[in-house]
Design brief:
The complex is a heterodimer of chains A (about 220) and B (about 270). Chain A is of the alpha+beta class and about 220 residues long. In chain A, about 15% of the residues lie in helices and about 25% in strands. In chain A, a hairpin with a 5-residue loop joins strand 7 and strand 8. The model of chain A has no long low-confidence stretch (mean pLDDT about 90). Chain B has a domain of about 180 residues: Cytochrome Bc1 Complex, Chain C. The chains are: A alpha+beta (about 220), B mainly alpha (about 270).
Chain lengths: ~220, ~270
């Protein structure tokens, strides 16, 4: 007759002192219940937290609607001087949604970037690429000047001095029905290559375009 | 011990003798006495059911080291600055409207039209500056007195989080008047945010609720300013105070030389 007290005890039975724990079982009922409660709690918490998080993060992934605004006929813009135009960049927030853009016709002697349907007329953003203050075009010196920290841009919007990290942003333009229309914003690097819009202060030369990725909510037009 | 001898009562006529209370009747207190005791009995009633008095005693009647001075009040001062912000903020929220088209007008309405509005808004505005200054002074006191050392490192860490949250409050609150200054300050702040590599652009998107400053940015800042961060600050102040009470305060550094010997003599 085998002696039940001399049976080798299973190494899996951790909670054998608990009443009702069977020799050899790997998961006691107490352990199972504790685990079930924790899992149920985690499910309940995520059911609350995940939708809330998605709700807060949602706007990041919403893409901005493409909006084209007519500003005048192509002949009203010279190719050696800028004309300021006010466009609405963000709807629904009154005057602060408006922004000034400086516009001129493309001048092939100065503008060396490849010509396409979106740059027959150039629209230069007034957002300084240092920290976003509004720049002003000074005709006498043919420079864009930022009042905040002394950023200076040359006639094409390239950095001429001060803290800015890249040339002034631009807006797509197209000519429809004899009218120049100003469209979405894009950013440029020092060679005036188009990039998806970046915030000011984010360089686009070299490693910059990878360190400061484009955001899902705002992209440049495809194939431009 | 000698047996007690019971003396006979003085010869008073029975009608003048004080009447003992009938068996079973309790002593009736006079209305004045009841009124006097009302506060105590109310507190007793609560304490009997919660045992809060022990915790209150633990929190308030602590031993403080020799040399404790006015610099040790900076933490409480910062907390009261926060309470000032919380209270005035709640009342400002009764009149403020966090929409891009109405915010400036409602802030102007608070300042110019509402009774005492200018005062309450001023309390909130200047109180925020006072709070930031007090938080920094409190941190400087902790640093220069070496009060961040073992076993108080965790309290220092909580304090650092509180400092960051205070600055988040300053940042988000600055936008709310929605005038030119606050708008451009926020634009600049968001762009500084964006210069953080890799996560910067996404963080800015999260704060602005989109890739540009837009209609939801203001209400987002408002919600962060009056719900999210104050809740976190309140909870962390609780943890901060608990650790202060648990660990006690440090003596100023100049008390250290004579401190230990005196203590050991008394112990011996």
């Amino acid at each position: 007759m085998p002696d039940r007290h001399s049976q080798t005890k299973s190494k899996y039975t951790v909670d054998r002192q608990i009443p009702g724990a069977f020799e050899g079982e790997t998961v006691t009922r107490r352990r199972f219940m504790v685990g079930t409660t924790h899992v149920a709690g985690a499910v309940a918490m995520s059911a609350i937290a995940l939708p809330a998080l998605g709700f807060a993060l949602g706007p990041i992934f919403e893409s901005k609607e493409e909006n084209w605004q007519a500003v005048g006929s192509p002949d009203s813009f010279p190719d050696d001087e800028y004309i300021p135009q006010v466009i609405v960049e963000t709807e629904g927030i009154g005057v602060i949604g408006e922004t000034t853009v400086y516009m001129r016709r493309r001048n092939p002697e100065i503008d060396k970037e490849p010509e396409d349907e979106y740059n027959q007329v150039l629209a230069i953003s007034t957002r300084c690429m240092h920290l976003g203050c509004p720049v002003r075009y000074i005709a006498a010196s043919e420079r864009f000047i930022c009042p905040c920290h002394g950023g200076v841009y040359d006639f094409r919007g390239g950095v001429a001095g001060g803290p800015p990290v890249r040339p002034l942003d631009r807006f797509y333009t197209r000519i429809r029905n004899g009218q120049v229309e100003v469209g979405p914003r894009f950013s440029v690097n020092s060679e005036m290559r188009r990039f998806s819009p970046r915030l000011p202060g984010e360089p686009l030369d070299g490693i910059g375009q990878y360190l400061y990725p484009s955001r899902p909510g705002q992209r440049k037009l495809p194939n431009t | 011990m000698a047996p007690k001898i019971k003396l006979p009562k003085p010869p008073l006529p029975p009608s003048f003798q004080p009447k003992p209370p009938p068996p079973g009747a309790t002593q009736q207190a006079s209305p004045v006495e009841t009124a006097k005791e009302a506060g105590i009995s109310a507190v007793d009633w609560i304490d009997e059911r919660t045992s809060l008095s022990g915790g209150a005693r633990w929190m308030m009647f602590r031993k403080v080291p020799k040399g404790t001075n006015w610099f040790y009040t900076l933490g409480s001062a910062a907390m009261f600055a926060f309470l000032n912000q919380a209270i005035t903020g709640v009342f400002l929220a009764m009149y403020y409207r966090p929409s891009a088209n109405e915010a400036y007008e409602s802030a102007r309405h608070i300042t110019n039209d509402v009774f005492l509005g200018e005062f309450v808004r001023g309390m909130h505005k200047w109180g925020s500056t006072v709070m930031v200054i007090l938080v920094f002074l409190h941190m400087a006191r902790t640093f220069f007195f070496g009060a961040y050392k073992y076993p108080r490192e965790l309290n220092w860490v909580i304090g650092v989080i509180l400092l960051v949250l205070t600055i988040v409050m300053s940042l988000t609150g600055y936008l709310l008047p929605f005038d030119q200054r606050s708008y451009w300050a926020t634009i600049v702040a968001m762009n500084i945010n964006g210069t953080g590599p890799l996560v910067g652009p996404y963080l800015s998107d999260f704060l602005m609720g989109g890739s540009e400053f837009n209609a939801t940015t203001l209400s987002r800042f408002y919600s962060i300013h009056m719900l999210l961060v104050p809740g976190l600050i309140g909870a962390l102040i609780g943890a901060h105070l608990y650790l202060v009470a648990k660990l006690g305060t440090t003596a100023p550094p100049w008390m250290k030389a004579e401190g230990p010997r005196e203590l050991s003599e008394r112990e011996a």
